[in-house]
Amino acid sequence: MINSIVTGGAGFIGAHVATHLQKIGHNVVVLDDLSGGFEENIPRSSTFVKGSIMDVELIEKLFKEYEFSYVFHLAAYAAEGLSHFIRRFNYNNNLIGSVNLINASIRYKVKCFVFTSSIAVYGKDELPFKEGIKVSPEDPYGIAKLAVEQDLIAANEMFGLNYIIFRPHNVYGEYQNIGDPYRNVIGIFMTQLMQKKPLSIFGDGKQTRAFSHIDDVAPYIASSIDIPEAYNDIFNIGADKEYSVNDLAHKVIDAMGLEGTIRHLQSRNEVLHAYSDHSKLIKVLKVDKDSFISLEAGLARMAKWVKTVGIRKSTEFENIEITNNLPPIWLEEVVNK
Questions:
Q1: Using an 8 Å Cβ cutoff, are 178 and 191 in contact?
Q2: Crossing angle, helix 245-256 and helix 185-194, to 10 degrees?
Q3: CA-CA distance, 327 to 243, in Å (whole number)?
Q4: How far apart are CA 194 and CA 60, in angstroms?
Q5: Residue 198's CB: how many other CB atoms inside 10 A?
Q6: Distance between CA atoms of 229 and 285, rounded to whole angstroms?
Q7: Are strands 171-172 and 199-202 parallel, antiparallel or unpaired?
Q8: Residue 321's CB: how many other CB atoms inside 10 A?
């Protein structure tokens, strides 16, 4: 039996990756502190350990007990825009926590460390983003992700730890944490509709993103360790077609079948246009882009799930470190707590 650990396996992408790993015969241990995930997301036949990647003693214990062949590291607080205001929390959780896992992977001779990074590492360079271009992240979240990538490269050169790095972008779908007011725009929109609130858009809404359904991302992350050509390389992963946030808002309203209005807020400091090239992914991982789920079809599937689970309340985030220049709608969240 192949033992694999999935960090963040109660969260959105992690839960789906854990499910797909089980389908291909892995014995899965899920490590999650439930700060952003839900226990009901975890595949039933997996082993769930409630804990943090900041707990070095726990990590040591798990690696020693299970002798993991593979590490799938998806635990992160992925609120990119908020990362400016939670700098210490961001670097502790998204960088230092990752290093704890890398250290253990080296000591216990893990065969491959699979890491979900982000297109946030690119910043605002020429589009579409390609893996070989110069990276220049614009926010602490992207900086932390890039630092982990660089540490994995250094660990490979020094210790021979194999890695596969994925840079997903704007992934959505079932199990997403729709109760988090700081991240996951589609989940935020759907929650606002159910609460009969206007959909909040920062700026004029002309910023563009490519939105990727989870079923076009998670299976490839899970199966990547069986493709030797993918080892020690970096891959963009996700959809190709970009949409403006304004277009997205109207598509979400249609998918939910509810009355909706839009409220434009003061613009925030963010990359205006972000989408990637996936030619390397297609070639190496044999991805069939023609089979990808359209945004309309994916939103319909997510909307059906959202209506089933209803409005979800996420664990309250109490780690805002800087309120200077915090967008007013986020400042309201802080004050109301």
A1: yes
A2: 50
A3: 23
A4: 43
A5: 14
A6: 8
A7: unpaired
A8: 11
- At 264, phi and psi to the nearest 5? -90, 125
Cα–Cα distance measured from residue 194 to residue 327, given in angstroms and rounded to the nearest whole number = 23
Residue 1 pLDDT class (50, 70, 90 cuts) = confident
Task: Give the strand pairing for 47-50 and 212-213.
Answer: unpaired
Tell me the C-alpha distance between 52 and 50, whole Å. Answer: 7
* 159 token code pair: 């210790």
Instruction: Using the structure block, give the residue that is written with the tokens 């990590």.
Output: 59
Other C-beta atoms closer than 10 Å to the C-beta of 46 total 20
DSSP alpha helix (H) spans, the chain: 12-23, 56-66, 87-91, 97-107, 140-159, 185-194, 218-223, 245-256, 279-285, 295-309, 328-336
Q: Are 321 and 86 in contact, with CB atoms under 8 Å apart?
A: yes
Span 278-307, pLDDT tens digits: 999 999 999 988 889 999 999 999 999 999
Q: Give the residue carrying structure tokens 């996700």.
A: 238
Q: Using an 8 Å Cβ cutoff, are 78 and 32 in contact?
A: no
SS3 187: helix
Peptide bond into 128 cis (omega under 30): yes
As given in the structure block, the two tokens for residue 281 are 């992914």
Q: 3-state class of 130 per DSSP?
A: coil
pLDDT per residue over 126-180, tens digit each?
789 999 999 999 999 999 999 999 999 999 999 999 999 999 989 999 999 998 8
Contact 224, 286 (CB under 8 A): no
Three-state DSSP at 264 gives strand
Query: How would you classify the pairing of strands 163-168 and 112-116?
Result: parallel
Residue 70 to residue 112: CA distance in whole angstroms:
5
Q: Which residues partner with 163 through β-bridges?
A: 113
User: Which has the closest alpha carbon to 173: 214, 218, 211?
Assistant: 214
Tokens of 325: 């220049």
- Residue-wise DSSP of 134-179: PP--SSHHHHHHHHHHHHHHHHHHHH---EEEEEE-SEE-TT--TT
What is the CB neighbour count within 10 angstroms for residue 304? 12
* Mean pLDDT, rounded, for 189-207: 95
